[in-house]
């Protein structure tokens, strides 16, 4: 059924509705343009209007009205996702959660927040309340929302200690509103969390989040330089493996990433320097020094609590995770990236193998993580883009060597994952979004259960770009 946009807007006239073309356009975009492939497919797509509910009751109202008038609804936190997750492919309504940003409760070890709360604002509130902080955050901590992180992200800073968002224990409870004639409100815990976490808002709107907290520290942020890439990798791998050390971030940048792309670090490094970024708890600095003294090649060039750098480099985590790509892109617009899983068996050998095969066309940016209790590695490798065929070839060559790719050049859940449908998400969508109005085009299995993945999925409902 064709959406009746005018009737929906009319029915929402008492709510915070935005129909101004310029701001609707801005709120219809995210950071999809990191990918030349997505930029080609998704540039210029816009919603018809944006609504910002103030509370859960208004979310219910919006969903009810949109259901009645067959209007697609794409939820937006802050729109910092990289896969076009927040882009309304079929137009309709952008449900912007910016006004639902309260920290509702703080307890020992946990907090209850609204979805539109910025990650940094949760930290500020929990730190002030009782010296606690969130365990895991996206490097877009300063700008991204917790709802967007849970529905669209996967992990990030803190992953060396706490694993990924989907690991048991990293989300305690989600409150979710369904898209039906009479929307229901569900409290979701346990195995059922997988239905809506990292589902891009295709099967429910998260209106309340309960997540664990850890003691807050004034983390010491460091840059180290090494002359040898494998030594830097081994250093980080061993450091994160030290059972007595509290580390929040361990990142390795192949040369010349720091020299070429990190403006404020560049004066302190040579082109052949491999750079490591770390966050170490203050009480672990003594252990850190003991550990580092065992490595001849480790040279501390910056520590946040004691430095004489003329220009403050900002948080080191804003060089890591997908901030590395951002910094490279600003200098060289032909750079894009891949998300690689090197696993836990022998990640150092696998990273080295990829480096031998592709450097300098692909430069290694490696994040050390904890996976299933073991130290592992993931990469957000920088790729010098030539064309789509070569990019696909690089993906295939990684996979052939056992390096898993989570393709950031695709806008569907399946293609950004392991080319298979998450049955729990699909089943929940059948139940919670029977008309298929939530973030249409992002779940292939909903549109085309027989899709073969032999080519990039092209959502047939894609509204023609403006
Ligand atoms: P949005 O982009 O607004 O939304 C993300 C998805 O969630 C969309 O599909 C949206 O529809 C859905 N959604 C939002 N809110 C809700 C809700 N309440 N209910 C249901 N669905 C909802 N990601 C990481 O995981 N780790 C990183 O370290 C990381 N680093 C990044 C660095 C840079 C420089 C950039 C540009 C991006 C990075 N990202 C990273 C991606 C992104 O910033 C994060 O995932 C971020 O947490 C998303 O939050 P957001 O508020 O911007 O979400």
UniProtKB/TrEMBL annotation:
Q: Which domain of life is it from?
A: Bacteria
Q: Does the keyword Flavoprotein apply?
A: yes
Keywords carried by this UniProt record: FAD, Flavoprotein, Oxidoreductase
One Pfam match:
FAD_binding_4
Q: Where is the FAD-binding PCMH-type domain?
A: 42-216
- Regions annotated as coiled coil: none
Q: Top enzyme class of this protein?
A: oxidoreductase
Enzyme Commission designation: 1.-.-.-
Check the record and name the InterPro entries matching this protein. Answer: FAD-bd_PCMH, FAD-bd_PCMH-like_sf, FAD-bd_PCMH_sub2, FAD-linked_Oxase-like_C, Oxid_FAD_bind_N
Q: Name one GO biological process term.
A: lactate catabolic process
What are the protein's GO molecular function terms?
D-lactate dehydrogenase (cytochrome) activity; D-lactate dehydrogenase (NAD+) activity; FAD binding
Report the protein name in the record.
Answer: Putative FAD-linked oxidoreductase
């Amino acid at each position: 059924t064709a959406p009746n946009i005018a009737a929906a807007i009319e029915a929402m006239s008492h709510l915070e509705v935005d129909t101004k073309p310029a701001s609707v356009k801005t709120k219809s975009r995210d950071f999809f343009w990191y990918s030349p492939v997505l930029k080609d497919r998704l540039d210029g797509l816009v919603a018809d209007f944006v609504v910002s509910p103030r509370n859960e009751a208004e979310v219910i109202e919006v969903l009810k009205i949109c259901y009645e008038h067959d209007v697609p609804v794409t939820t937006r936190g802050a729109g910092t996702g990289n896969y076009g997750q927040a882009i309304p492919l079929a137009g309709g309504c952008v449900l912007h959660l910016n006004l639902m940003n309260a920290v509702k409760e703080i307890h020992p070890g946990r907090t209850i927040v609204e979805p539109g709360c910025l990650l940094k604002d949760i930290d500020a509130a929990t730190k002030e309340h009782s010296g606690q902080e969130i365990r895991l955050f996206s490097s877009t901590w300063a700008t991204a929302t917790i709802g967007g992180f849970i529905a669209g992200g996967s992990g990030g800073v803190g992953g060396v200690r706490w694993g990924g968002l989907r690991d048991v224990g990293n989300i305690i409870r989600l409150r979710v509103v369904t898209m039906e004639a009479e929307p229901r409100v569900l409290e979701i815990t346990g195995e059922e969390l997988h239905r809506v976490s990292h589902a891009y808002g295709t099967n429910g709107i998260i209106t309340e989040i309960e997540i664990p907290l850890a003691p807050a520290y004034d983390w010491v942020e460091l840059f180290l330089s090494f002359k040898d890439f494998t030594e830097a990798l081994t250093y980080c791998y061993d450091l994160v493996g030290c059972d007595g050390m509290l580390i929040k971030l361990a990142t390795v940048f192949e040369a010349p990433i720091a020299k070429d792309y990190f403006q404020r670090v560049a004066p302190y490094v040579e082109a052949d320097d491999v750079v490591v970024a770390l966050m170490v708890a203050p009480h672990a600095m003594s252990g850190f020094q003991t550990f580092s003294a065992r490595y001849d090649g480790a040279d501390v060039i910056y520590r946040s609590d004691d430095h004489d750098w003329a220009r403050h480099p900002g948080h080191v985590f804003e060089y890591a995770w997908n901030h590395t790509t951002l910094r490279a892109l600003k200098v060289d617009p032909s750079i894009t990236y891949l998300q690689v899983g090197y696993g836990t068996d022998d990640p150092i050998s696998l990273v080295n193998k990829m480096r031998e095969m592709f450097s300098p066309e692909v430069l290694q940016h490696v994040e050390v993580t904890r996976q299933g209790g073991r130290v592992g590695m993931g990469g957000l490798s920088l790729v010098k883009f030539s064309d789509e065929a070569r990019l696909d070839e690089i993906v295939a060559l990684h996979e052939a060597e056992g390096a898993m790719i989570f393709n950031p050049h695709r806008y569907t859940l399946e293609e950004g994952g392991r080319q298979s449908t998450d049955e729990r998400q699909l089943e929940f969508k059948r139940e919670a979004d029977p008309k298929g109005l939530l973030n249409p085009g992002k779940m292939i299995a909903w549109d085309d259960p027989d899709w073969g993945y032999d080519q990039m999925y092209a959502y047939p409902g894609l509204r023609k770009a403006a």
